[in-house]
Specification:
- This protein has helices at about 1-10, 15-25, 30-35, 50-75, 80-85, 95-115, 135-160.
- With about 170 residues, the protein is mainly alpha-helical.
- The model has no long low-confidence stretch (mean pLDDT about 90).
- Bound molecules: zinc ion (ZN).
- Zinc ion binds near residues 27, 31, 47 and 112.
- Zinc ion binds near residues 27, 28, 31 and 47.
Length: about 170
């Protein structure tokens, strides 16, 4: 989620962290089932860019409704200042859903390609994974954590400054 928070800080209202997270859940259903049952490939088709495209389309279509339900459950009874920091739209546009879902699934394949040797991101065109251990696992975790911290700081800084006009 760290890189997602950083992307949210940059794209603000043009990106949904909820759809991004929804895509992360669906990306790892196949590995979860493989681990629980001991059958099938650990990462397999879901962790290819073709699989990620299909999962992104599914998440973009379903995510819009998941987002609405979450927003209803949260309720946004904010003070004016809290509103400035935390309030988000109750609805997402289709383009935001699509963008967020694709960023979610494609970044997942990219990061898992670096982390796991069995991921074949460009299957069936290229049957090998040239990105494996391009960064160390510790380096990758560090990158994700720092991206999340930096993203959070940037996001709330931009939100808190929004609407403040320089005085003449
Ligand atoms: Zn994964």
């Amino acid at each position: 989620m760290g890189p997602g928070i950083l992307i949210k800080a940059i794209l603000q209202g043009f990106f949904s962290l909820i759809i991004f997270g929804w895509a992360q859940v669906w990306m790892d259903i196949q590995p979860l089932l493989a681990m629980l049952t001991g059958k099938g490939e650990l990462h397999g088709f879901s962790h290819t860019y073709i699989g990620a495209t299909l999962i992104a389309i599914f998440c973009a279509l379903t995510g819009k409704w998941i987002y609405k339900v979450i927003m209803k459950m949260c309720g946004q009874n904010f003070t004016e200042y809290q509103k400035k920091l935390f309030a988000v739209s109750g609805n997402l546009t289709t383009s935001v859903c699509i963008t967020s879902a694709f960023i979610g699934t494609f970044s997942h394949v990219l990061l898992d390609s670096i982390m796991h040797g069995d991921v074949e991101p460009f299957y069936p065109i290229i049957p090998t994974n040239h990105l494996h251990l391009l960064l160390s696992i510790e380096g990758l975790y560090g990158l994700c954590i720092y991206a999340g911290i930096a993203g959070g700081a940037i996001y709330f800084t931009i939100r808190s400054l929004r609407g403040i006009q320089p005085r003449p």
